[in-house]
Amino acid sequence: MDRIKEHFTTKLEPAVREVKDFIKEHGDEVIGDIKVSQLYSGMRGMLAIISETSKLDPDEGIRFRGYSIPELEEKLPKYVDGQQPLPEGIFYLMLMNELPTEDDVKRVSNNWARRSIVPPHVFKVIDALPMHTHPMTQFVAGIMALRTESEFQKAYRAGISKSEYWDPTYEDAMNLIARLPRLAAYIYRRAYHNGEHIEPDSKLDWAGNFAHMLGFDNPEFKEMMRLYMTIHSDHEGGNVSAHATHLVGSALSDAYLSFAAGMNGLAGPLHGLANQEVIRWLLAMRDELGGGLPSKEQISNYVKKTLSEGKVIPGFGHAVLRKTDPRYDAQRRFAMEYMPDDELFILVSRVYEVVPEILQATGKVKNPWPNVDAHSGQLLMHYGLTQYDFYTVLFGVSRSLGVLTNLVWNRVMGSPIERPGSITTDLLKDKVGAK
Ligand code: HAX
Questions:
Q1: Is residue 421 one of the residues assigned to a domain?
Q2: Is residue 356 part of a domain?
C-alpha cells in the first residue's frame, strides 16, 4: 500500500465514528425551513449536501478545510524557488484534513507521476472526433474512454464488500487525477498544434508537467498554472460540477462516470464555460470599438448594450458569493506582480471598475462582483495560451481534485443514493392552502 493511502486509512474509522455519533445524538434536530420560493429558484440557500473539503461563505469566500486562499498561499508547499502553492498540497489538505509537509507533497507528485500513463485507446477515441469538436466534449469523451481502467468497476463485479468501496474509489480517483493533464494536453496539442504532442517530464510536479505538455516551459507560466490548479479545485458541494459528480456517484457509479457528469455541468456557460465566454466577450468588445484599450465610458456603453441584448455579463455574479471572489483577487495579485502593464489586464481591471455599478443598477442582480472566471483567461492570454475554447478543460483538470476527494470520502462514509423529493405546483398549492 502506498504511503499516502496508508496515512489516509488512519483517518477513516475516527471520521465515520464521529459522524455516526453525531447523527445518533442530534439526528432529529431541525436546522432550517424551506420556503416555497426556494423550490422554484434552483434550491438556493437550501442545505442539502455534506461536503467536507471546502465551505463557501457569501461574504468572505471559499475556505478549504478552514483555510482561506491567502492563508494557503502562505502555508502550502511551493515548487523549488517558487512562490505559488502546489496543487498537490491542496489535494492533500482536502483528503487528509491536514496541512501537508514538503515531503507529503513530493510523495503526491511522485505517486501521480507513476500513475500517469494514458492507455493508447484513449487517444484513438479523441482522434476519431472531428477536429472542430469542442475541447470539453473531447475531454468528457476521453474520461469515458479511460473508464476501461476503473478499479471500482472491476471490484464491484468481483463482489467487493460495501466496507471496502472506498479503496478502489481511491485508486480510481488517484489514477484519474494523474492522467487528466496528459489527456487535456493531448486534446490541446491535437487541436491547436498540428498534433505535435509533447512527452511528459516525470521530474516535474503535476501542474508544471501539465504546462510542459501543453507546450509552455516558461517558469512563470508554470507558477501561474500551480496557482490556477489550486484555486479552481473546489467550491463547496452545491455548485453544478461538484453536485453532479456527487449525485451520479451516489448511484455507485465509479469515479469516471461521476467525474464525466460533473464535467458536463462545468461545460455550461453559467458555470465553468464562463472563463471562455469572458475572453470572447472582451475581445469582441475590443474589436467592435476599433482595437486598443477602451475607455471606461466605452466599456460602460458596451456593458449596457450586452444587457439590452438579453445576455449576461460573463464573469460577474454568483449564486452564493456576495463580494469579489477571493479567487479573482488571487489572480489579480498574480497579474499585478508578473504583468502589471499587460493591456488585457488593464482592460480586465477597467471592466471591474465599471460593471458592478451597472449590474447593481438593474436592481435584480444579487451579486454584481466578479467571480473567478472574470480573470483567468487574461492570465492565459498573456502567456500565449490564446485558444479560449480550451479554457474550461483547464478548470476541469483542477476541479477533479475537490470532487474526486469528495467521492472517496462519500465511499468511506457509505453515503446513500441521492433521492430528493419533488412535488407538482398543484400539490404545493394544496399544501400551503393557496387557491
Ligand atoms: N449579467 C447579467 N445579468 C445577471 C448577471 C450577470 N453577470 N448575474 C445575474 N444576472 C441576472 C440573472 O440572469 C437573473 O435575471 P432574471 O431574473 O432575468 O432571470 C437575475 O440577475 C438574478 O440572478 P442572481 O440571483 O443574481 O444570480 P443567479 O444565482 O441566478 O445566477 C450566475 C448566478 C453565476 C449564474 C449569474 O450571476 C450569471 O449568469 N453570471 C454570468 C455567468 C458567469 O459568470 N458564470 C460563472 C459563475 C461562477 C462559476 O460557476 N464559475 O465556474
A1: no
A2: yes
- 318 classed as catalytic: yes
List pocket residues of ligand 1, CB cut-off 6 Å.
239, 270-272, 274, 307, 312-319, 359, 364-367, 371-373
Secondary structure E strands in 37-125:
54-57, 61-64, 67-68
Residue with CA at minimum distance from ligand 1 atom 34? 318
Q: Kindly give the distance from the C-alpha atom of residue 326 to the centroid of ligand 1, in angstroms, as a whole number.
A: 18
294 contact partners, CB below 8 Å, separation of at least 6: 285, 286, 302, 347, 350
Q: Tally the domains of the chain.
A: 1
**Of 212, 232, 318, 382, which one is the catalytic site residue?**
318
Q: Where are the alpha helices (DSSP H) in 289-424?
A: 296-308, 326-338, 343-361, 373-382, 391-413
C-alpha span between 411 and 250 (Å, rounded)? 9
| Each residue's pLDDT tens digit, 339-397 | 999 999 999 999 999 999 999 999 999 999 999 999 999 999 999 999 999 999 999 99
**271 noted as active-site residue:** yes
| pTM for the full predicted model | 0.97
Catalytic position from the list 212, 246, 373, 375: 373
Per-residue pLDDT reduced to its tens digit, 74-131: 999 999 989 999 999 999 999 999 999 999 999 999 999 999 999 999 999 999 999 9
Note whether residue 163 is domain-resident.
no
CA separation for the pair 238, 49 (Å, rounded):
7
CA-nearest residue for atom 49, ligand 1, is: 271
The atom number, within ligand 1, closest to the CA of 240 reads 50
- Which residue's CA is the closest to the ligand 1 atom numbered 36? 317
Q: How far is the CA of 35 from the centre of ligand 1 (A)?
A: 21
Q: What pLDDT is recorded for position 250?
A: 98
Q: Is 373 a catalytic residue?
A: yes
- Contact between residue 257 and residue 426 where contact means Cβ atoms under 8 Å apart: no
Q: How far is the CA of 57 from the centre of ligand 1 (A)?
A: 18
Give residue-wise pLDDT tens across range 191-221: 999 999 999 999 999 999 999 999 999 999 9
Q: What whole-number distance in Å separates Cα of residue 67 and Cα of residue 6?
A: 25
Q: Which atom of ligand 1 is closest in space to residue 317's alpha carbon?
A: 37
Give the CB-side neighbour count of residue 104, counting CA atoms within 13 A: 21
Domain of 363, CATH number, reads 1.10.230.10
Q: Which domain holds residue 298?
A: 274-382
The answer to the question of residue 179 being in a domain is no
Mean pLDDT of 384-411: 98
Catalytic residue among 271, 325, 329, 375: 271
Question: Left (φ > 0), alpha (ψ -120 to 50) or beta: where does 239 sit?
Answer: beta
